Amino acid sequence: MDSREFRNAMGRFATGVTVITSSDGTENYGMTANAFMSVSLEPKLITISVDNKANILNKIKTSGQFAVSFLSDEQQDISMHFAGQKKKDDPIEFDEIEGVPTIRGSLASVVCDVDQSIVVGDHTIFIGKVLDLKLSEGQPLTFFCGRYGKYQENIHV
């Protein structure tokens, strides 16, 4: 199999859309990602996977912190901005939790200290120890087969 076929197969797994954020102390950085997973309740740990060529990689390594914000279905423009697909017309509005930037209006934002980092293939996996989080109401932005979508409840009559 070639890389494109592998990527297409992975794209058939429907996911929510997140933006990973970090800061170098003067500027906030973000990256759209769907490579996120909850790892443990005790201790509270999550994991993200970041391409080794991504600009945010060294920001996370240097700061030792990152946040994951789960986007709502009204935040596709933010996802596209941080994915490098389309520049957002308005400035990105950040909130801050424990000194780490998060995406304002997201469904949830989880802030972590880096617990471990592991280089695997062309990515670095960060395991984050959760420091704090913030929840909001709304519906999730989804991604499937290279396209954005919205959550739809199946109502059985």
From TrEMBL:
Entry coiled-coil feature ranges: none
InterPro entries per the UniProt record, alphabetical: Flavin_Rdtase-like_dom, NADH-dep_flavin_reductase, Split_barrel_FMN-bd
EC annotation from Swiss-Prot or TrEMBL: 1.-.-.-
Domain named Flavin reductase like: residues: 10-150
Keyword vocabulary terms for this entry: Oxidoreductase
Keyword DNA-binding: no
Protein name: Flavin reductase family protein
